[in-house]
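lol forgot to send this yesterday, sorry. struct tokens for the thing we talked abt
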């Protein structure tokens, strides 16, 4: 029967239940903006329960936020908030934004009150829709598209969704556009909204989940630059990333060997069965793509090292090697290059698209399939402009 308005680090104001909506908005507008950018939602919930939980009366706790919160990684604080709400018979209702599929951040454009873009974009911390990574981390090999082209998950961020579910509340997704997924179908792919320790015990007890979880944690974030502007640095980094790509290829091969015998087991997961089946199929397809593309990088980099690097011509300030997808690239000797591995990756990704149509797994597979091509390293010359003599 009371409301706490919280901005930034500390709850800042109490509002009486008799306040009309326009007075609430007016009072909220008078609150000073917090310059830290912190959004401590768990602290706000704990503060509310500490002051109002003693009433021992059923209540609704309403949380409105556009981000996950700066303090949600404090497991003890999250568990404390959950236990306080359960003890006080408080139900959490969240009005928040949709989490991007397996990406903790999304790009958000600055807009005016009519929704029109009025400035640059910024990163919003939406959080994962699941307790942990259940698919590859967003940084991946040498391209950064996954970091930019987020796929909507269909769910809110995990911490707030879990707290709402455990207390009998609901997470309402606020969106500028209608969801691209069917709600009834997506219910089969719902994340496990159980406390983190319960989730971790389930993962430890499942051979498939345990193997996949270890793979995601061990995955090396290898991101050589698309281009390098100094020849000596180009030579050194080409060698460095060639070595990393070789290691990445071996990791993918070992992971394929580990996961392939578990295909039937992935169909019999006890918890979140459809979700983990989709996780397995997409992961298995991506391992084949990584194996192919890591081999491609080794090939094109070794070719560049073997052929030598171009020397600057007159007035040329920079020599750059750029890496591109090249659907027409072939080996000069055999006339083919990596086709068998490439076609295997495409076959598996196409299967994911077909089997998980209308889900985030199908959408990710579409993106990855469109970028499953041979690679090429191409020298690009930038000519320094001639400056007039004074």
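and heres what i got for the seq, position by position
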């Amino acid at each position: 029967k009371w409301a706490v308005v919280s901005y930034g680090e500390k709850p800042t104001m109490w509002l009486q239940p008799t306040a009309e909506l326009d007075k609430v908005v007016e009072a909220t507008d008078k609150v000073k903006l917090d310059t830290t950018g912190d959004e401590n939602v768990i602290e706000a919930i704990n503060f509310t329960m500490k002051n109002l939980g003693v009433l021992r009366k059923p209540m609704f706790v309403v949380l409105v936020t556009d981000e996950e919160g700066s303090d949600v990684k404090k497991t003890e604080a999250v568990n404390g908030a959950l236990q306080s709400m359960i003890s006080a018979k408080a139900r959490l209702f969240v009005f928040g934004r949709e989490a991007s599929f397996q990406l903790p951040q999304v790009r958000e454009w600055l807009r005016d009150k009519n929704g029109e873009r009025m400035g640059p974009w910024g990163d919003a911390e939406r959080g994962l829709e699941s307790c942990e990574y259940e698919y590859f981390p967003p940084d991946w090999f040498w391209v950064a598209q996954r970091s930019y082209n987020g796929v909507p998950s269909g769910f809110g961020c995990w911490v707030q969704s879990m707290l709402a579910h455990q207390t009998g509340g609901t997470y309402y997704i606020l969106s500028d556009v209608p969801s691209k997924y069917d709600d009834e179908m997506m219910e089969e792919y719902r994340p496990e909204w159980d406390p983190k320790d319960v989730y971790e015990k389930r993962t430890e007890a499942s051979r498939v989940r345990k193997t996949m979880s270890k793979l995601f944690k061990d995955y090396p974030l290898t991101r050589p630059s698309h281009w390098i502007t100094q020849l000596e640095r180009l030579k050194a980094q080409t060698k460095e990333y060639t070595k990393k790509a070789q290691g990445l290829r071996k990791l993918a091969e070992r992971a394929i060997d580990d996961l392939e015998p578990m295909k039937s087991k992935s169909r019999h997961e006890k918890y979140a069965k459809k979700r983990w089946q989709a996780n397995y199929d997409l992961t298995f397809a991506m391992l084949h793509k990584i194996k192919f593309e890591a081999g491609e990088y080794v090939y094109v980099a070794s070719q560049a090292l073997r052929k030598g690097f171009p020397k600057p011509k007159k007035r040329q300030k920079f020599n750059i090697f750029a890496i591109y997808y090249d659907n027409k690239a072939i080996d000069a000797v055999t006339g083919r290059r990596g086709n068998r591995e490439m076609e295997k990756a495409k076959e598996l990704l196409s299967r994911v698209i077909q089997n998980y149509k209308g889900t985030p797994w199908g959408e990710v597979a579409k993106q990855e399939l469109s970028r499953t091509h041979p690679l090429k390293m191409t020298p690009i010359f930038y000519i320094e402009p001639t400056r007039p003599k004074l």
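The two ends are 77 Å apart (CA to CA). anyway ping me if u want another try
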